Amino acid sequence: MSERVLMKGNEALAEAAILAGCRHFFGYPITPQTELAAYMSKRLPKVGGVFLQAESEIAAINMVQGAAAAGVRAMTSSSSPGISLKTEGISYMCGSNLPCVIVNIQRGGPGLGGIQPSQADYCQAVKAPGHGDLHILVSAPATVQEMVDLAGKAFDLADKYRMPAMILADGMLGQMMEPVVLPGEPAGPLPKKEWAASGHNNGRPKNIINSLYLDPYMLEESIKKRYERYKIIEENESLHENYLADDAEIVLVSYGATSRVAKAAINMARGKGIRAGLLRPLTLYPFPKKAVAEAAKTAKAFISVEMSMGQMVDDIRLACDCSVPVEFFGRTGGVIPNVDEILGFIEKTDRRYK
Amino acid sequence: MKYCYRRDAEGGAPYGKDENYNMKEINARFAGFGGQGILFLSKLVAYCGIIDGREVSTMPSYGPEMRGGTVNSSVRVSDTQIYSPIVDSPELLVVMNLPSYLKFIDTAAPGGTVVIDSSLVSEKTSRTDIDAHYIPATALANENGLQGLANIIMLGKILALTGFTTFETVEKAIKKAVPPSKSHLIEKNIEAVNLGYRM
Amino acid sequence: MPSFKRPKALADVPTSYCPGCTHGVIHRLIAETIDELGIEGKTVGIAPVGCSVLAYNFFNCDMIQAPHGRAPAVATGVKRAIPDNVLFTYQGDGDLAAIGTAETVHAAARGENITVIFVNNAIYGMTGGQMAPTSLPEQVTQTSPYGRDIKSAGFPIKVCELLSTLDGVAYAERVAVDSVKNIRNAKKAVKKAFEAQIAEKGFSIVEIISSCPTNWGLTPVDALDWLRDNMLPYYPLGIYKDKTS
Question: Which chains pack against A, by 3+ Cβ pairs within 8 A?
């Protein structure tokens, strides 16, 4: 086993991206993701890479778009207000079938909001990360180790499906330090990108990277083709962790940093004789619908536990076809729920659905 | 997919530990001024946990950058999976300035241990349900040619009070955490641990 | 007698430009330059949003269509990924000097080693003739129906003058495509800008004063007269920056 090293979430993710073959990072400073960019600015020049601090989030995502169009693994990171600015570029990249990785170290919103951890960009990431009919891959790490593991996976899947992938983390995961095991070896040969606009060298027909279709039928066709891909993704790429959920009557659904607190509450609830469990999505798009439907067979109730006002609740309802009530407990604005309050809500829910 | 939660799945004693293994867990908050080495102290404690093959987490407070501002950090060392990295009611509280003392003294868990740098905090707690220790760490550092190492003196005291690790591990952690450019400070750091340990 | 042939780098397709529009001429100048420098195989062009949005269909090199105003940022990303390739953006006045001002100024300030072809016709063409950042004082457009009122809408932006103050700019020239003489000059400028990039001198820009007969409501010939009478006095032609020698 490789050595366990102590790393900050933001820095571990950055190193993982480099190990995944990312050599092009474009970003703009914003708390609480700054360490990620700072790490890249230090490391990338030493491995022959490019770190560029852009004039804006908008410029940064468009630089990512250019680099991705040229065929390299490119990445940007930001936090909530900055991600809003990137949505234009994300939409273009979806429409142009370009892969990239976008990191959102979420903070409280709306507006300038706050700088403490939040999960209030769930809907933005999962439902509408840009204008138009589109999806991006969204993964949700809960540990610094998963920041590493999911970063590598994000690059692979982005390339495989030719679409942007987002790592939706939060200020807590970005700032905390935990031991991680980094991949021992850098990524092997990266996938060839025959479609890239990197100069045809008079050896092939020209490549065009484009999202414009003035003919609505052609646009519709291109979107439908993309949705075929989304179907394959929804079928094959969802990830979740099942923690004591098999026999659970009260099933918490929680992701990212919040799920850690939820686990502690579940342990305490079990100690009190409540059959509580956790379904933890590691991917938010695709959402682990089948796992939720499966858990609904034994569950008396779901509780969505989030650092938001309940943005995931509807997805749980849809996944279980409203067969089981879905309750919600959350804190928002940068407040991290504590174990006792989650436990209290589990107890209350357990009494209600006895 | 790898998880750092592997121990839960495997169960039993931590890696390389026999059944008699009995090291204390750490659920701590360290707080003081920026520049006092609060984050370095957190890192050292976490390194100790890693060297001992345990689970660790540290979570710094973060906010608008301000010189002279207060900084605090949650630190956990455990033999099982760490859920929340945030320690709301610390079993071990180390405070190295007055604002931190005022902010956190009431959060210490009943029965918990509190270590206060009495060079910088003149107040004494009226709480009787905690075990409070007043160590003039900053003054001790200055008197013993260990300027800037009050935090490490505190580490020695933490070690003595909690037994969360061994002296050998602390020494290894220091060697690991002190950057090569400052390797001449390793001896001083170890001296500071010793001093704190004896206090 | 020299024959008049389509440059190799110019695609053999009908363009989407109005009759009498000068975009076609400018496309040709770029394509000729690409041919003469023998760089089609390693050139990547960035198309903007605006009348020339479909430029990706008209050049035979690899092409990328950028979001409105972002062409210099997209070009930056490409250039940083494949620095040995030749990058050009093709942008109109709304794209470059309004919504994309930040991207333009910062790419120039960084001395990004790319070539910007800036087509200034003092109007938003594709959306039907609205006031542009380069529309002249008193110019009547769809959104300045009483003439551009400088008290309210402010002054036109003189892009070459503005950018020439930046140290990162290696080459900035303003040309026009209203006459054979000026078109020949424009060709020289375009070529010089590409050469500056190939010599890694930094950011190069050619501002091309151009006409829009359709939205100016003039015949192509009258439009060229209007250009000479109104635009050239406000936008003097010439080299504003040259660090290439």
Answer: B, C
Nearest CA in chain A to C59: A206
What kind of architecture, by CATH, is found in domain C23-242? Answer: 3-Layer(aba) Sandwich (3.40)
Element holding A231 (H helix, E strand): helix A216-236
CA distance A324 to A317: 8
Sort out which chain A residues have CB atoms less than 8 A from C67's CB and list them: 62, 65, 88-89, 92
What is the Cα–Cα distance from A291 to A315, expressed in whole angstroms? 12
Burial of C168 (0-12, 13-18, 19+ CB in 10 A): middle
Given this model, what pLDDT does residue C2 score? 65
Cβ-proximal residues to A242 (8 Å cutoff; 6+ apart), any chain: A277, A278, A279, A280, A291, A295
Inter-chain Cβ pairs, chain A and chain B, closer than 8 A:
79
**What pLDDT digit, counting tens, does each position of C50-87 carry?**
999 999 999 999 999 999 999 999 999 999 999 999 99
Contacts of A9 in chain B (CB under 8 A): none
Nearest to A73 by CA among A23, A145, A144: A23
Cβ atoms of A51 and A28 closer than 8 Å: no
pLDDT score at B12? 39
Which value does ipTM take for this structure?
Answer: 0.96
- Nearest-angstrom CA–CA distance, B87 and B92: 10
- Whether there are 3 or more C-beta pairs closer than 8 Å between C and B is no
Contacts of B50 in chain A (CB under 8 A): 4-6, 179
Average pLDDT, rounded, for chain A: 97
Q: Residue C1 — very low, low, confident or very high, per pLDDT cuts 50/70/90?
A: low
Domain chopping of chain C, boundaries: 23-242
| C51 shares contact with chain A (CB less than 8 Å) | no
In which element (H, E) is residue A104 found?
A: strand A100-106
Domains and CATH numbers, chain B: 24-198 (3.40.920.10)
Q: What is the DSSP string of A67-94?
A: HHHTTS-EEEEE-HHHHHHHHHHHHHHH
Q: What is the pLDDT of residues C185-208, one digit of tens each?
A: 999 999 999 999 999 999 999 999
Residues (pLDDT < 50) of chain B are 1-18
Domains located in chain A, CATH noted = 4-182+213-236 (3.40.50.970), 241-352 (3.40.50.920)
CB contact under 8 A, C81 and A208: no
